Amino acid sequence: MREIRLAARPNGWPTAETFEIAEAPTPEPGPGQVLVRNLVMSVDPYMRGRMDDVKSYVPPFQLGAPLEGAAVGEVVASEAPEVPVGAYVVHGLGWREYAAVDAARARVVPAADNLTAYLGVLGMTGLTAYVGLLDIARFAEGETVFVSGAAGAVGSVAGQIARLRGAKRVIGSAGSADKVRHLVDELGFDAAFNYKDGPVRRQLREAAPDGIDVYFDNVGGDHLEAAIGSLRKYGRVALCGAIAAYNETSAPSAPRNLGLAIGKELTLRGFIVSNHNRRMPDFLAEVGPWVRDGRLKARETVVEGLENAPAAFIGLLRGENTGKMLVRLR
């Protein structure tokens, strides 16, 4: 089988030389394991942090070892009676064609034409948006919400959940005119702006002249600074990601107005979605029907071929995707 390994730790932006594609023996499942033929794998921004040899909430990727990430595939051999051959499962050993997975770490999903949804809108991506908006930011009906990176996988779901939960106004930022149109025309955001068109702080104030109550942060940096300036008294921030800083080699220059959090009595709270897996049944019960009847839309950017996964990952960091970035294995 083929797998993608970490060949070198990047200094700043990853390049093609950061990765290597290699052949390895196809594993055999041990007791309590299943052998999965991966069909589709997820590409996510958090993986950039695991390429650095630093202490974090997840261990770093090891040089010369295959990368890891969410994938969905078909069980082709099983040493675990509870997960039979022919079942489809979501697991965490992507970036390879076959994986021997502990059955306890494989989530069986229904066989369906849209298996990719279990890596995106109905998977950890959607759960991240749900938990971040409702549990971390404590969004309430009638509030104004700002989502950065709103055309991405998590941001697009967070904004739509806010709309469907009765937000007064939902505002998003994105990196192109096409993405801005997608947010407003297809996803139902009340307003959106291209952060490349001018200072984020000015554009946010124009979109929300009366301020915002909740900020769902996928970007950090100048977006977080702008949101702090626009948040009303007792505003809340869900710190989901800070993609603006992932490839920087120097300290971030923003936010420079964090002191406002004191006078406004703001709440800024980070979260790790894997610590909130207990919310998955509630999430699926509420969001699943929205997806099925088309009230919540999820666009995907699909790259074909395992060998193109490194380019897909670099493209994700550069904002080349709309919605979830996926790689379909051939």
Describe the overall structure:
The chain is α/β, with parallel strands linked by helices and 330 residues long. It has two domains: 2-119 and 298-328, Alpha-Beta Complex (Quinone Oxidoreductase, Chain A, domain 1), CATH 3.90.180; 124-274, 3-Layer(aba) Sandwich (Rossmann fold). The protein has nine helices and 15 strands. The protein has helices at residues 47-50, 124-136, 153-164, 177-186, 200-207, 221-230, 260-263, 280-292, 309-317, and strands at 2-6, 19-23, 33-42, 71-78, 88-91, 98-102, 107-109, 144-147, 169-174, 191-194, 212-217, 231-239, 267-270, 300-304, 324-328. Strand 12, helix 7 (260-263) and strand 13 form a beta-alpha-beta unit. The mean pLDDT is 96.
Write a short abstract of this structure.
This protein is an alpha/beta fold and about 325 residues long.
Please specify the SSE layout and strand pairing.
Layout: E1 2-6, E2 19-23, E3 33-42, H1 47-50, E4 71-78, E5 88-91, E6 98-102, E7 107-109, H2 124-136, E8 144-147, H3 153-164, E9 169-174, H4 177-186, E10 191-194, H5 200-207, E11 212-217, H6 221-230, E12 231-239, H7 260-263, E13 267-270, H8 280-292, E14 300-304, H9 309-317, E15 324-328
Parallel strand pairs: 8-9, 8-11, 9-10, 11-12, 12-13, 14-15
Antiparallel strand pairs: 1-2, 3-4, 3-6, 3-15, 4-5, 5-7
Shape verdict: globular
Instruction: Provide the residue-averaged pLDDT.
Output: 96
Percent helix: 25-40%
Radius of gyration: 20 Å
Task: Examine the coordinates and then state which fold CATH places here, giving the name of the CATH topology of the largest domain.
Answer: Rossmann fold
Distance between the termini: 12 Å
Structural category = alpha/beta
The CATH H-level homologous superfamily of the largest domain: NAD(P)-binding Rossmann-like Domain
Query: Which series of helices and strands comes N to C?
Result: EEEHEEEEHEHEHEHEHEHEHEHE
Unreliable parts: none
Give the percentage of residues in beta strands.
25-35%
Structural domain count:
2
Task: Provide the CATH top-level class of the largest domain.
Answer: Alpha Beta
